[in-house]
Amino acid sequence: MHVYDLIVHSLTYFQRDKQDRRRLICAVATEPLPKQVEESKMDAPKEIFLKDYKLPDYYFDSVDLTFLLGDEKTIVSSKITVLPRVEGSSSPLVLDGADLKLLSVKVNGEELKNGDYHLESRHLTILSPPSGKFTLEIVTEIYPQKNTSLEGLYKSSGNFCTQCEAEGFRKITYYQDRPDIMAKYTVRIEADKSLYPVLLSNGNLLEQGDLEGGKHYVLWEDPFKKPCYLFALVAGQLESRDDMFVTRSGRNVSLRIWTPAQDVPKTAHAMYSLKAAMKWDEDVFGLEYDLDLFNIVAVPDFDMGAMENKSLNIFNSKLVLASPETASDADYAAILRVIGHEYFHNWTGNRVTCRDWFQLSLKEGLTVFRDQEFSSDMGSRTVKRISDVSRLRISQFPQDAGPMAHPVQPHSYIKMDNFYTVTVYQKGAEAVRMYKTLLGSQGFRKGMDLYFKRHDGQAVTCEDFFAAMRDANDADFANFLQWYSQAGTPLVKVTSSYDAEAHTFTLKFSQEVPPTPGQPVKEPMFIPVVLGLLDTSGKDMPLSSVYHDGALKSIASGSQPAYSTILRVTKVRAHR
Ligand code: PHE
Ligand code: ZN
User: Fold this and answer.
1) Domain of life here (predicted)?
2) Is the pLDDT of residue 24 over 50?
C-alpha cells in the first residue's frame, strides 16, 4: 500500500486489519473460553433500529470498580448505585455481558439466589429489583490474556489495556452497555508491582500504595459522568514523557505520554501536537481542559487509530511515535491530526456524548470537522481542504454510490463495529462544515456555545446539535436534516447566463439524489452554494444584490460591497 493511501484511508485500513486478524484467529482456533451459561436465541444477529430507541428503565449514578489483575485470570468487582427512571417501577433490569464468568450478584448487600436473576450467554437480568434507589454488586472473572478480540480488557505486548467503544465494556462486567447511561466512576487496580509498575485509569489519582506479596494498588476517580465506552485501564511497564500545559484560566495540567522505555524519544512530536491542540481549542472554541492530568498511551496492538477515553487516550503506536530519521511529512501530519482529534473529543464526545450509536456522527463528524480546522490553522488551509475533499471523493463518494451506502445517521445496524465509516466520519464532517458555511465563523461559534450550554453532561442526538445551531442564530435551515437521514451524493447541475445590459448574472440549479439501497425515492436536499464572480482579469467582482426566493435582496453591507454570497438550493430546480 502506498504511504499516501495509508493516511487517506487510515480508518478503513484499520478496519481491514481487524477483519484480517479475526480470520487469523479463526484459523489458529485457540481454546474456547469456558462456557458457563446457557446458549440462547439472543445469539442470532439482531437488527437494531433507530426508531425503536427507548429511554432506559434504570440510570446508574456511581460505579466503583475493582480490578485484581492476574496472569491467569482477572477478577472484576463492580458496585453500582442504581436509580429507577420512574420512581416506584420495578421492571426487570437487563444487563449486557459477553465472555464473562459470573461469580456473584448482590442487591443492597444481599447475595441473589438462582431464581432472583436470569443468566443467558449475553445478558444478566435482575428479575425484580427494589422499587427505589439500590446498590448492585457484581463480581466477574475474565481472561484478558486469552482475549484476542481487542475489545474489553486484553493484553498487548505484556501490558493490560482496554478498548470499550462501541460495546466492549460488556466484556469486562455486566452493565447497561449503552452511551445514555452516564455515571461517575472510581477505579481501584491491584497488580504485581514488578510486572505492572504503572497502573492507569480515568480521572485523578487519589491514592496508591504497596500491598502484601509484591503487589501494589492505585485508586482513580473521574469526577465527570461518562458512558462506559469511555472507561479505560492500562497496566504495565511503561515510561512517560512529561510536560505541562497552563490553561487560559491558569490551571496546571500534567501531560504524560506513555510508551515502552525505548520509544520515549519518539514522542516529541506527539507532545508538541497535544499542547498545540489544547491551545487551539481554547483560542477557537473557548474550550478548556477540565482535569489536572491528561495521559496518552501508545500500544502496538490496537484496531483503530486511537480512542478518546476520558483523560486516558489510547493510541495505535504508529499514530504517536515518529523519529526524524524514518517518519515522513505525512506521518507527522497524521500524528498532529489524530492527537488533535482525540483531544477534541473531550468536549465533543465526552462532555457531550451520543444518546445511542445511531448518533455516532454527532461526535465523530463534529470532531473530524474540528481536527480538519485544527490542521488547517496549523498548516495550509488550502492544501488541507484539497486533501480532505479528495479523500471524500476517493473513498466516501464510492461508498455512497455502492451497496454499502448509508445515511450519516443510519436507520439500523446489526453490528455497531461496522458503522465506523467514511460516511459517518467524513461526510458527517462535511455536514458540520455546511453549518459553518451558512452561519459564518461567529454564528457557528454561537451555535457551539449554545450546544454546550444546553447539553453539557448529557447524551444527545444529531437533531439536538441542529437545534442548537438553528436557535443560537435564529436561522431557517429548511430541510437541512436530510443530510443526516438520506444517503447518496447529490448531483447538482448549474447553467448560467449573463445579461450585460442589465448587469444580471442568472444561475439555474437542478439537483438529483440517486437512489440508494433501501431509499429508492429521495427528497431534495438543502445545498448551500457559496458564489462569487471574477472579472476577466481574475479579480473578485463586487456583488450588490441577489434574488432570493423570488425577492431581491441587497447583499452589500453598508458602503462595503460583498464579494461572495451564499445561495440556498432547496428544491429540485431553482433559479437564482
Ligand atoms: N472513537 C475513535 C475515534 O474516532 C475511534 C474508535 C472507534 C476507536 C471504535 C476504537 C473503537 O476517535
Ligand atoms: Zn473520533
Assistant:
1) Eukaryota
2) no
Listed residue (264, 219, 217) closest to 238, CA to CA:
264
Class of domain 353-485: mainly alpha
Please write the tens of the pLDDT for every residue from 135-193: 999 999 999 999 999 999 999 999 999 999 999 999 999 999 999 999 999 999 999 99
State the amino acid at position 145 in one-letter form.
Answer: Q
Taking Cα atoms as reference points, which of 387, 254, 262, 256 lies closest to residue 323?
Answer: 262
Note the Cα 377 to chain centre separation in Å: 22
Give the three cell numbers for residue 125: 437480568
Number of neighbours of residue 2 by Cβ within 10 angstroms: 7
Local confidence band at 544 (pLDDT 50, 70, 90 cut-offs): confident
Ligand 1 atom with the shortest distance to the CA of 349 = 1
Ligand 1, atom nearest to 364 Cα: 4
8 Å CB contact between 473 and 446: yes
For residue 309, give the ligand nearest its CA: 1
Q: Which three cell numbers stand for residue 126?
A: 435482575
Asked if 258 and 200 count as a contact pair (C-beta separation under 8 A), the reply is yes
Task: Give tens-digit pLDDT for 198-256.
Answer: 999 999 999 999 999 999 999 999 999 999 999 999 999 999 999 999 999 999 999 99
Q: How many whole angstroms separate alpha carbon 298 and alpha carbon 291?
A: 21
| 43 — pLDDT class (breaks 50, 70, 90) | low
- What pLDDT does 575 receive? 64
Which residue bears the cell 470498580? 65
Helix, strand, coil content of the chain in percent (nearest 5): 30, 30, 35
Q: pLDDT > 70: what percent of the chain?
A: 92
Task: Collapse the DSSP code of 77 into the 3-class scheme (helix H, G, I; strand E, B; otherwise coil) and give the result.
Answer: strand
Q: How far apart are the C-alpha atoms of 339 and 342, rounded to whole Å?
A: 5
**Contact 311/317 with Cβ under 8 angstroms?**
no
CATH class in words for 491-575: mainly beta
Among all bound ligands, the one having the nearest atom to the CA of 18 is 1
Q: Given this chain, do its domains 56-146+161-233 and 491-575 carry the same CATH topology?
A: yes
**CB-ligand 1 contact for 331 (6 Å cutoff):** no
Catalytic status, residue 342: yes
From the list 440, 464, 437, the residue with the least C-alpha distance to 453 is 464
Ligand 2 centroid – CA 430 distance (Å): 15
364 lines ligand 1 (CB under 6 A): yes
Task: Provide the H-helix boundaries in 346-461.
Answer: 360-378, 381-391, 397-400, 422, 428-455
- DSSP one-letter code for 210: E
Helix (H) or strand (E) holding 61: strand 58-68
Q: How far is Cα 253 from Cα 27, in angstroms, rounded to an integer?
A: 46
Q: State whether residue 129 is helix, strand or coil.
A: coil
DSSP at 416: G
How high is the mean pLDDT of the chain? 92
Domain positions in the chain = 56-146+161-233, 353-485, 491-575
Contact 432/545 with Cβ under 8 angstroms? no
Per the document, the length of the chain is 576
pLDDT digits (tens, 9 = 90+) for 312-334: 999 999 999 999 999 999 999 99
* CATH architecture of the domain covering 56-146+161-233: Sandwich (2.60)
Q: Is the CB of 307 under 6 A from ligand 1?
A: yes
